[in-house]
Each structure stands twice: as C-alpha cells, then as structure tokens.
Amino acid sequence: MAFAFLFSTACAIIGFVLAILGLFAGNTPGFMEDYSIIMLNTSALGRNYVPALNQPATRDLSHVVVLADEEANVTATAAPLPHAVVEVKTTTNTDSTDKESNNNDEPKYKILDDESADNADKNNVKAKEESAKKLMPRKLTLSAAEGVLAGLPADSAADDMAEVLGISEFYSLHVMNVCEGTYAPNATAADAWRNVSSCTIQLNAQQLNISELIDNELNANFVDGGSLARIGASSSLQNALGRIPTIGLVLAVFYIVACCAAGLCLLLTGASIVTRATHGRETVLANLGAASGAALALLIAGLVSAVAAKSTVDSINRLGEDTIGMQAVHGGKFEALTWAAFGMMVVVALFWLHELHSDAKKAAAAAAAKKKAAPAAAKK
Q1: Cβ 83 vs Cβ 117: under 8 Å
Q2: How far is 345 from 351, CA to CA, in rounded Å?
Q3: Nearest residue to 244 via CA among 171, 325, 182, 194
Q4: Alpha-carbon span 110 to 82, nearest angstrom
Q5: What confidence tens digit (pLDDT) does each residue in 165-180 have?
Q6: CA-angle at 183, arms to 177 and 185, nearest 5°
Q7: pLDDT in tens, 27-57
Q8: Residue 141 burial (CB < 10 Å; 0-12/13-18/19+)?
Q9: Which of 101, 116, 286, 361 is the most buried (most CB within 10 A)?
Q10: How far apart are CA 363 and CA 59, in angstroms?
C-alpha cells in the first residue's frame, strides 16, 4: 500500500508539472515554442502573385531599395566587381581635324590596381550610405508589392515574400498567447527553427485572433491598406481562421482548471499523510474529486486539441495552401503533453478510487461483524 501511495504521489507531481508546462508554453519568446496548438506558416503568403515559381530567375530581393517618390519605384542595386574597377574616360579635342576628333571621342579604358579598386569601393559605399540617409522611407502600395512578388525568383520566393508584405513568417497559437517571428536560417532550410520576435499579452482574447493580427500588419505596411481578403483569402478561409481564438480560449479555460485541480490534488495528497487516519473518508473523497477534476479538464483539452484544432488545420490547408500560400501545422507535441498529463491524473484518480472502494469494503465488513455480534450479545 505504501508503494501505491508513493507511486500515485509521483504521478500527481508529474501531472501537475506537465499541466503547468502546457499552460505556460510560449509564455515568453522562445520558451517551448515547439509546443504550440496551431502554427501558421505565412512565409509563402501571396504565392498567387508569383506566377513563375518554377521558372529560374536571378533577381535578388536583398538588393531592392524603395525610393521615396510620389510613386512606388523599386530599383535593384548591382554588386561591385571583386578585384578591379574599370574606369571609363572620354576626351574630345575640338581643335583637331575630324579624324583626330573621332579618335579622341573613342573611350579610353584604365584598369585600376587592387588598392585603387578597394578605395573606389569604399568611396562608392560611403556615397550610397549618405544618399540612403537623405531618402525618407516610404510605404509601398499593395499594387506595387504585388508587382514585386510577381518578379520574385523561384529559389528565394519563400524567403522574400513575407518581407515584401511586411509580415512575420509564422504565427503560433499557445494556450496563453500568440507568438510570431521568422525562420532561421531561412524558411526553406531543411532544419529551420523558429526565431520568435514577439508575443502578445497573456489571456487577451482579441490578440488570440491571428487573422486580425496579420490584417493589422498588412494594413500598417501599405499606403492604401491591406488585408488577407485583399490578397485573395476566401471567406471560407477567413471563417476557418476565425475559429482559432475560440480554440485558444477554450483550451486556456480548461488548462487553468486542470492546473488548479492538479495543484489542489498535490496539496491534499501531502495532507492525507496526517488526515487519513482521523478523517479517512473525507480525505479520500477530497483527493478523488481533485484528481478527477484535473483529469476531466485535461480530457476536454486533449479532445479540443485532437479534434477541433486538427479540423481547423485541415480546413486552413485545404482552403489556403494552394491559393494564397498559407499553411497550418497541428501542434503534435502540445497534444502529446496534454494526453501525458491526463494519463498521470487518471492514475492518481484510480488510486483514490481504489482507496474509496477499500474503505467501503472495510466499513461493510465491520458493519456485518457488528450485526452478527449483536444477537449474541442480546442472548447473554
């Protein structure tokens, strides 16, 4: 019996710790980021504006500069030659004959040595930096951004599209909040990991709405405003995205209940060492109720993660992956953690249920013995 009590106590501790971890996963940037409920991959958002994804191209978005004109103009800066610079000089002798003039009009080329080339490179870089400081940053129009997206090369489109739109490359839903950031080293790397840049306020129902967060970022990034609807998201896709905050709120409620019940169960388990002898039935019922409450709350949370969240992920992928490039990923690690915590609390509840049954059998046996002894005492 002592071993069973110690085992149930260990399960109560593990279940409580797992529930706390699930509740506070993603609480701060980078903390258990992989344990998200739903993750939206938006690195390819706007792929409907990239008609040549499978065509080779050489355009590099890292060299795109947006000028502060009345119109949104995009120019690409070329990379300098690595070892030498070709300097072109043109001279004209107006006092010479036509033949000599024609000879002088021909360009003369001078190859600078490596030291001169380095100095020229430094001067060019300095001049560009000073010019860039004079240019006031301005926003693109959504139409101009669509034009940039249309010219992206296939090999780097996934790494550049989110940058053009001014949004994050992923948005992850956790129990308490939503986090966003970029993939490192890049979105197309096989071993890419999530580099979280910011997280929303905890338990803010409005900020659990990922589609609204993306709409706000798009709207702030473009002069004429922007939204998922404007880049091609259907109403069905927006309805699927609208289920995300509801899932987050439901999981937050039941996870908080589970953590409170599991913590209470742990305290009652410790107290039962003292109260079990004097208030046996009350102690068993209190522990059974706390363990059962935690297990029930975790059961509902697990079902929400396995059914509702999975269904939402499937709907988003079906409606958004091949249209606007939005992909959703179900949080398998979070679901596994939830079911593990549920299993621990079920073990604790079963132990106290066994204790209740044992106490009932002992009480019934004592009552039967007392009833049997009563007639014998009466005859005497």
Answers
A1: yes
A2: 10
A3: 171
A4: 16
A5: 888 889 999 999 999 9
A6: 150
A7: 888 899 999 999 999 888 877 766 544 344 3
A8: middle
A9: 286
A10: 84
Q: In the block, which residue shows the tokens 């580099």?
A: 195
Euclidean distance between CA atoms 321 and 42, whole angstroms: 10
Q: How far apart (Å, rounded) are the C-alpha atoms in residues 188 and 275?
A: 60
For residues 268 and 284, what is the distance between their CA atoms, to the nearest angstrom? Answer: 9
Question: Can you give the length of the chain in residues?
Answer: 380
Partner residues linked to 171 by β-bridges: 40, 180
- Quick: pLDDT tens for 324-369: 888 999 999 999 999 999 999 999 999 999 888 887 787 777 777 7
Helix, strand or coil, per DSSP, at residue 360: helix
At which residue do the structure tokens 């004079």 appear? 134
pLDDT at 191: 80
| E strand or H helix at 40 | strand 38-41
Gap between the Cα atoms of 168 and 180, Å rounded? 6
H or E stretch including 144?
Answer: helix 142-150
C-beta pairs of 189-194 under 8 Å, 24+ apart in sequence: 194/33, 194/34, 194/170
User: What gap in Å lies between CA 193 and CA 303, rounded to an integer?
Assistant: 28
Are 205 and 192 contacting, i.e. CB atoms less than 8 angstroms apart? Answer: no
Which residue stretches of 209-331 are H helix? 210-221, 235-242, 244-275, 280-303, 310-320
pLDDT band at 277 (very low <50, low <70, confident <90, very high): confident
> Strands 108-111 and 170-173, how do they pair?
unpaired
Angle between helices 280-303 and 332-379 (to 10 degrees): 150
What per-residue string of b and e applies to 264-286 under the rule 16 or more CB within 10 Å gives b? bbbebbeebeeebeeebeebbeb
Specify the pTM.
0.71
Sorted by sequence, the CB contacts under 8 Å of residue 55 that are 6+ apart come out as 154
Percent of the chain with pLDDT over 90: 37
Q: What is the structure's pLDDT at 175?
A: 93
Q: Which one, of 324, 316, 271, 263, lies nearest residue 12 by Cα?
A: 263
Distance CA 11, CA 203 (A): 28
